[in-house]
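Batch manifest, entry 17 of 40.
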Amino acid sequence: MLWLIPIYKNFMQNILEINMKKISVLLMALFISSWHIADTSPHIVTGDDYPYTLLQDKPSQKNSRNEVTKVLLEDEAVALLQAYLQVDTISPPGNESRAVDFLAKIFDKEGISYESADSAPGRGNIWARLEGGDKPALILLHHSDVVPANEEYWDFDPLSGEIVDGYIQGRGALDMKGLGISHLANFLKLHRSNKELNRDIIFIAAADEESGGKYGMGWLVENRPEAFEGAALLLNEGGSGFRSKDGVVFSIEVTQKIPVWLRLTSVDEPGHGSSPRTTSSVSRIVEALNIIWNSPFEPRIIPEVDRVFSDRSEGLEEPFRSKYKDIKNMIQDPLFMKELQEFSPSSHALTRNTCSLTRMNGGVKINVVPPTAWAEIDCRILPDNKPEEFIEQIEDLIKDTGVEVEPLMLGFPGSSPTNSELYLAIENFISTNYPDSKLSPSVSTGFTDSRFSRGIGIASYGFNTYIYEGNESSGIHGNNERIHEDRYRQSVRDLSLILEKVIYD
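Output type: structure tokens
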């Protein structure tokens, strides 16, 4: 029986080796599996650093690097947007320095150098630059302030950032923290890629856009010109996609009416309300306003506006479809112009210079004729006008009233070309990825921070790859502002494709 002992030892040794190999294989499989799972899922960082995700692509993954990046990119954008919406930057008062703190912590963790500056207490601005080749730099611009929200009329906390029923909720989701985070997520992606860029990419978060830009882009252009050094292209808000029964129409803002904010002031003898004089400070203001309202600015169609009406006509029913196509002639018909204003005030505003009375003050007591009175009017002029010439026109109209005209804010004239690298990249992306849609250059009746960048010679475009549906856009400056999560994810991916066309040779 002793002869069996060596055989038994060899048998047990083989069994042990086989089992150890199986265990090793099993452990390795579990390790690889856990590593793979961890690699393809975003890592959430919470606490004082604000939630955000780190993208860590590994070349050994089964999917291509680009595919993995796409998934992680949109996950990160959603997490970042949820956190950003919780940062209170409601203006007034603004407190955009809170947004600067939020973004600075992210840049610090990523090892991205940046600069920031307060234009006034709490009015913070921040910018960062990724260095690339010799081509003119591209700026990704957004404003960090948001308009107030009357919680009484909201169904959820305006600063919640929660995802409910497929929507990311909060003030700024549409205007414009959503687009700002899309810019940021793609900016981080480019930084992490270590791929050579053909140009510098500049990220800017500016304050105060909702109140005119005095403490934001206006201040940066005047006081921090180095932030714009070498830049020739800029991407901002102002246009997007809209799904209708005829498909998707993308608009890209290439110019805008120029804001001219004016204060009218009159001075006259004060007195008792029981003994009116032939004139007073208040009557002078009223007279001046009546002259302005009764001397409407002549309608005219500039080439950019003609193109807008032609594009808009395709989504209309008759008779407006034909009238929009023939807008150059139709503006001569007073009845049509009245009809147009009732049908679409924004379209009507594109046909002429306009002024709206927004504020006025004429005294503090009903039986006292005040020594001074004032009114503020919001004028918007067509982009081929010069603000100084328009002011002279207003002064000439009301010169006999004795009312003084004081400019409160003047915009900058300028239009961006439709043949730049950025515009053509957007155009190419839409024709390739949305072949049944169209891209329409637009003229904005409102203003954005692009007026400042156009004022210093930077071709600036208002464009967001997000596609609105139904009355979703009513949340902009309205109640219950929110953005659809899935379509937002798609817009982040789409922006990545556009940027790749511009920043890689």
